[in-house]
Design goal:
3 domains; binds iron/sulfur cluster; Fumarate Reductase Iron-sulfur Protein, Chain B, domain 2; Rossmann fold; four-stranded mixed beta sheet; alpha/beta
């Protein structure tokens, strides 16, 4: 089934589920309130956003230089950088490291990029023990479900479902509350940190001039995942570069205020290759730098700004489409929400993923809330234009618009009885409109007919 058809099917199920919509509305509205509260931390948020946007613009315009600077800094400190052209390339490199180390136990902590390269699915086919260390991801892994929200992956799961899976898998009490379940999960995964051969983490920012990696989190599992393992693998994308460590103050606070409303996340870690003075921790520090189609975005002068994203998730929380039909799992792409809808067709191809650019009312709420001033809704419009330029408009769509134009330019057709017009429109747009919504009815008489009647012309 085509990705668009899968999305339509999944979205139609969600749209008619009133309880689910109400629950999502409440949770997402709470996240929006948190973000609004977090924004009050800035004496002048507009200037903070402008500064961040300028820094990311500078990075995108000089990405080749910053990436080479980062690589050089890591190597000088004794670490290693591996360039991965695509997801398959990244997975092969990870396999080679595992084979070289004869590693059997791996711990990993949540990062969107793992979904992008299909890390869990890849590991499941191998005889390795992979432990998810973040609570939400751990639950989803037990359930075999995909992440639903960029910041709170198990957002769509009910308390009952969480209790039930933990009761089945790790014998947690059904009567316990969320804190007690989180404590049970921590007890379950704690030994895995000590036993791990490899710790895999994502990164929030890569610091070009010092070869350091910055990670912002609330559960502290990323830092634990490489505290005991002898090898730390970081998987990061080429657009996560910041020029200097002094940029972190602004970016850490923009990220946490817009993601969760916190002034700063609970744990902000800056790590790098081991030094001679380090008595503990990893002896090997490897960064896998993933491109996976980001060069395509970089090559488009107009859309390049999409590489500025710091993955705070704020644009998803305010998006009316995400609210009623959304969830990462539904979008059929590894990144969802408004920013995912821009980058997916550019990274993965318009032919398969153009439908994502149309999942928007272009209300502009996403653009307003973005901490790095990405012009999100206009980039979605640019994508729609690009789809036409690349010639991927479907024959059915072309025919529909051709007919629409004919219809609208013909006075005779517009003055036909409403029943005929209603029937024709419904036939044309039936599949796009879906079964669950009533198609809007056209007025009994056209404006032209009403006007003629008013002034007495037959
Ligand atoms: S596009 Fe902006 S609002 Fe959306 S996730 Fe990225 S940084 Fe956050």
């Amino acid at each position: 089934m085509h990705a668009k058809e899968k999305f339509n099917k999944a979205a139609q199920e969600k749209i008619v589920d009133k309880d689910f919509r109400q629950k999502m509305g409440v949770v997402l509205d709470k996240l929006v309130q948190n973000q609004q509260h977090g924004a009050l931390e800035f004496s002048n948020l507009a200037i903070a956003k402008q500064r961040a946007a300028y820094t990311k613009w500078k990075v995108a315009e000089n990405l080749d230089k910053y990436l080479v600077d980062f690589e050089g800094s890591v190597i000088r400190k004794g670490g290693k950088v591996i360039w991965a052209y695509d997801a398959q390339n990244a997975l092969s490199e990870i396999d080679s490291i595992i084979a070289r180390l004869k590693a059997k136990k791996i711990v990993k902590s949540k990062a969107e990029i793992f979904d992008e390269i299909g890390l869990n699915k890849h590991f499941r086919s191998k005889s390795l023990k992979l432990t998810e260390t973040d609570f939400g991801e751990y639950i989803l892994d037990l359930m075999g479900e995909k992440s639903y929200h960029p910041i709170i992956p198990s957002l769509n799961q009910s308390v009952q479902a969480v209790g039930s899976i933990l009761n089945t898998k790790i014998k947690s009490s059904l009567e316990a509350n969320l804190d007690e379940w989180a404590s049970d999960v921590r007890a379950e995964i704690r030994p895995c940190f000590y036993e791990a051969d490899i710790g895999i983490s994502g990164a929030n920012f890569l610091i070009a001039d010092s070869g350091l990696v910055a990670i912002s989190e609330n559960q502290g599992n990323a830092r634990l995942s490489f505290a005991f393992a002898k090898t730390h693998i970081i998987i990061a994308s080429i657009d996560q570069i910041l020029p200097t460590i002094s940029d972190l103050e602004l970016f850490f606070s923009l990220l946490s205020t817009h993601a969760t409303g916190q002034q700063f996340a609970t744990y902000n870690t800056i790590t790098g290759p081991p030094t001679r003075d380090d008595k503990e921790g990893p002896t090997e520090f490897i960064v896998i730098l993933l491109d996976n189609g980001r060069s395509n975005i970089l090559a488009t002068q107009e859309q390049r700004q999409a590489l500025s994203c710091i993955q705070c998730g704020a644009c998803s929380n305010v998006c009316p489409i995400f609210k009623i039909a959304g969830g990462d799992a539904n979008y059929q792409s590894y990144r969802s929400g408004p920013i995912g809808q821009i980058v997916a067709p550019l990274q993965q191809g318009f032919q398969e993923y153009q439908y994502l650019s149309n999942l928007s009312t272009t209300c502009g709420k996403c653009t307003d809330v973005c901490p790095v001033n990405i012009d999100i809704h206009n980039h979605l419009l640019r994508n729609r234009h690009e789809n036409l330029v690349q010639g991927f408009e479907k024959t059915g769509e072309k025919f529909a618009w051709y007919t629409w134009k004919k219809f609208m330019l013909s006075r005779k057709t517009l003055n036909r009885p409403a029943a005929i017009k209603n029937f024709t429109l419904k036939q044309f747009y039936k599949s796009e409109w879906g079964e669950s919504r009533e198609f809007p009815k056209i007025a009994e008489k056209s404006f032209n007919q009403l006007w003629r009647e008013k002034i007495g012309i037959k």
